[in-house]
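Hi there, hope your week has been kind to you so far. Thanks so much in advance, here it is.
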Amino acid sequence: MYSVNAPVPGRVRELASRLYPRLVGFETVRETHSLLVKRLATDEDRPVSALGRRVHRALEGAPAVEARITGIDCFADPPLGSAPVVYLAVESPGLEAIHADLADVFDPVAGLEGDDYVPHVTLARGGDPEAARRLADRSIEPVTWTVGELEFWDGTYELPVSSVSLPA
């Protein structure tokens, strides 16, 4: 699976690191952090490089956008994978607009994208729902940054394949 991701700044990674001791009881704790903007299904009949070119074309004209971590939240019953999912909540009308533009070009994943898209940075998943709720009740200092690039991400190797500077 490939995706378009927004890298997060060091301040967001530092926040995730500070929360790490409260996450160790979860089944999976993310070691690296980014913000998923759009999942991309691969087409077995076309090379991945063609998918990358389509992504770059779809992002033409996309502006740099503001994003803001506003708190900790959780998905109690996510449509995929183990529950709960604890995450850093992100407010970004600009990223939501980019997601909508990409969803016009690349089919949205039902239940996760399109109108159901929630910008977030996953911290951990699986484990005690009460622990997730306690984390979601914690207050944190907001972190605001400008998303100045997006990455075309290879989910198999968990690496960016290419990037697009914004404005594109």
